[in-house]
Amino acid sequence: MIARPQSNLLAATLAEQGTTILSVWSDRLKKSGALASGRIREAELQTQCRTVLDLLTPAVKDGVDAAQPAFAPLRDFLADLSRSRAVQGFTPSETATFVFSLKQPLFEAVSGTKGADPTDVMRTTWDVTQLVDALGLQTIETFQKSREETIIRQQREIAELSTPVVKLWDGVLALPLIGTLDSQRTQVVMENLLESIVSESAEIAIIDITGVPTVDTLTAQHLLKTVSAARLMGADCIISGIRPQIAQTMVHLGVELNVVSKATLADAFALALKRVGRTVVAVKARELPAS
Q: Is the separation of the CB atoms in 24 and 105 below 8 Å?
């Protein structure tokens, strides 16, 4: 985008008609449903619009290239606004509309300038289009990046919550897995299990895969990594919850876990107790005295 200092109609229009542009822009946003979601109040929306125009007016005095240093305060404000809206639950269209809806008020203000040269009006209209498009694209890119970062953070938190390590007995831990086991989740599983092995001085760790829908070669590799890490910490592992369908799939794929496995968590727990020198016996229920 090329600066046009010789005839800066846009800068003059913003300086002279800023109040009118703000009013028209705010009205267009309200009519488009900017307040319908209830996420933002009219006073806050008005303040955001006014701030954009206050930062835009001095920035365009030397040109309309949004990448220039003069536009840095405006770019920063729009970036902060995008991140804030991403957290508040605004949609991409609502965020983009905030910027792109500024075009029409600027077009009307520029074309309505008395005594302006038609060529200058046409050129300024094109400059407005490029400028607002550039600012709008930057805003939506920042919004999208913020949403992705939020989703990644939430996925990490969910992964941590979905991989609890349960103490079944002194020296015996259980790690029930539910859902797909990918590389990122394996890391979380490993960290939680190893920390629990150290804190509980555990000798046996039962990894229950009853809730894992399928075990392929990649899933088996992730399990083996977890088992190997636990062994390095001095704990033996038992894998439980291998259903007939999973067993057949593993045999078909030639997957070998090279670790003791049991069909159910109860069987694995019984084996773990035996290894730590414990046993479970049935005790006759005490008869309650007659009332």
A: yes
pLDDT grade, residue 157 (50/70/90)?
A: low
Instruction: State whether residue 206 is helix, strand or coil.
Output: strand
- Say how many Å lie between the first and final Cα of the chain, rounded: 95
pLDDT classification of 152: cutoffs 50, 70, 90: confident
| CB-based contacts of 226-232 (< 8 A; 24+ apart in sequence) | 226/186, 226/189, 226/190, 226/193, 227/257, 227/259, 229/190, 229/193, 229/194, 230/193, 230/194, 230/197, 230/205
Pairwise CA distance, residues 52 & 182, whole Å: 44
Mean pLDDT of 149-157: 77
Contact in structure between 55 and 74 (CB atoms under 8 Å): yes
Looking up tokens 């003069």 gives 70
How far apart CA 270 and CA 279 sit, in angstroms, is 8
- Please give the domain boundaries of the chain with CATH numbers for all domains: 9-155 (1.10.490.70), 166-275 (3.30.750.24)
Radius of gyration of the chain (CA): 32
The answer to whether 99 and 135 have CB atoms below 8 angstroms apart is yes
Mean pLDDT for the chain overall:
87
Helices (H), the chain: 9-31, 42-59, 72-88, 92-100, 103-111, 118-161, 183-200, 217-232, 244-253, 265-275
89 by Cβ neighbours in 10 Å (0-12 / 13-18 / 19+) ranks as exposed
Q: Annotate 90-99 with b (16+ C-beta within 10 A) or e (fewer).
A: beeebbbbbb
Global pTM exceeds 0.85: no
Predicted confidence at residue 3, as pLDDT, reads 41
- One DSSP character per residue, 17-49 reads HHHHHHHHHHHHHHHTTTTTTSSS-HHHHHHHH
